[in-house]
Design a protein that fits this description.
284 residues, six-stranded parallel beta sheet, two-stranded parallel sheet, 10 helices, RmlD-like-bd, dTDP-4-dehydrorhamnose reductase, dTDP_dehydrorham_reduct, oxidoreductase, EC 1.1.1.133
């Protein structure tokens, strides 16, 4: 029986990873942020020992907060990931690390391939890029970076749930229509990560970077309209606006659409279309 370790197990993705792994024969260790501080190298080394696969869902996720606390964000998203990679190298474990579309500049017009040049536009993206580089450098044969984006799910605060809450409170909702991306259900991503980890153990998935986002693309405005429609609400209650109307401390990439070519080489299908997953999430 293989032994899996999930860090950040209390978060939205972490909870879905545990739910998916429950249906596999794996022995699973679940560590929340309170259980394991990944910035503590000794604690990380002790936690990783004895595991075959480590899925890192622990992260600093406060994008705006990272602008004024980049060192703290990098300690978790960069240095801490390096501790995990170092420990996995010593333990002979595969590491699946969840990263972000924010490592790209967001000025593209076609999906970013896995090997596209990185150029983050904010502190959060820079902190996550440090983590990516630690994985690929320290674990060239056993490190897997899975970039995701626009994540939503049942286990935490997210855009979809916020929109549906606002639908019950307001007649109309203004949503930005000038950022394009791929809304991704955390449960679908969790299934993909478990499939990748199994393929890694079987030797059928090469190490490196993969893109774990839903197929297709839309804007935040388009996502809100689809969520309204699927709930039987009038989508015209969602009104388009621009990013300039919602100034945030951290700049957001205007274009965050990722390509999915590497999954085929691993014998795995990419994630389904974002509309399909959104409907499944709302049913779920």
């Amino acid at each position: 029986m293989t032994a899996w370790l999930v860090t950040g197990a209390g978060g939205m993705l972490g909870q879905d990873l545990l739910a998916v792994l429950k249906d596999t024969p794996a022995a699973v260790t679940a560590l929340t942020r309170a259980d394991l501080d990944i910035t503590d190298p000794a604690a990380v080394r002790a936690a990783v020992t004895g595991h075959d696969v480590v899925v890192n869902a622990a992260a600093w996720t406060d994008v705006d907060g990272a602008e004024s606390a980049e060192d703290a964000a990098t300690a978790v998203n960069g240095t801490g990931v390096g501790h995990l990679a170092d420990a996995c190298a010593d333990a002979g474990a595969r590491l699946l690390h969840v990263s972000t579309d924010y490592v790209f500049p967001g000025d593209g017009t076609s999906p970013y391939p896995e090997d596209a040049p990185t150029a983050p536009v904010n502190a959060y993206g820079r902190s996550k890029l440090v983590g990516e580089r630690a994985v690929t450098t320290l674990l060239p044969d056993d490190g897997y970076v899975v970039r995701t984006a626009w994540l939503y799910g049942a286990g935490g605060r997210n855009f979809v749930s916020t929109m549906l809450r606002l639908a019950a409170e307001r007649d109309t909702v203004a949503v930005v229509n000038d950022q394009r991306g791929q809304p991704t259900w955390s449960r679908a991503l969790a299934k993909q990560l478990v499939a990748l980890g199994s393929a890694a153990l079987a030797g059928t998935a090469a190490a490196g970077v993969y893109h774990g986002t839903a197929a297709g693309e839309t804007t935040w405005y388009g996502l809100a309209r689809e969520a309204f429609a699927l709930r039987g609400l009038d989508p015209d209650r969602v009104r388009p606006t621009t990013s300039a109307a919602f100034v945030r401390p951290a700049p957001r990439p205007a274009y965050s659409v990722l390509g999915h070519d590497r999954w085929a080489a691993a014998g795995l299908a990419p994630l389904p279309d974002w509309r399909e997953s959104l409907a499944a999430f709302l049913r779920h």
